[in-house]
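thread: overnight batch results

M.L. [08:02]
morning all. the overnight job finished for the chain we discussed friday. pasting input first so we're all looking at the same thing
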Amino acid sequence: MSAFVSTITFKCPACHTDSMYENPSLYTFKDLSKSKKHCSHCGEDLQPEPGFYFGAAYVSWALTVATWVSVLVALKCFDWWGWMEFGFLTHPLTFLFSGIGTSLVLFPYMFRLSRSIWAHFFIEYKGDQKS
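M.L. [08:03]
and the structure it wrote out:
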């Protein structure tokens, strides 16, 4: 499995086999942030130090900016700006509500994706070796 596929499917950065999370379901909010301490396949420590995933906030910020830019481009490309002509507030409100809605729907995926990107950036791939 490639590093890219492993990252977007939240697999262990060391072996690309097992999930990083205890519950693989995205929309169970009580288990959203519960990640495994060690990979059950290769034994890699998925939490190398306390506060390791605080840096994922920077990745999350970048993903959120990319989401909002994508919403803006989609609204511009599909000319959704002119759906309701009720005055000068139409365009910013359309963008605001579309951006907020998209962010809320994508939040669980973006949360886990940012942590996965952060882990894949710092934890070295070791192949299929057992620790």
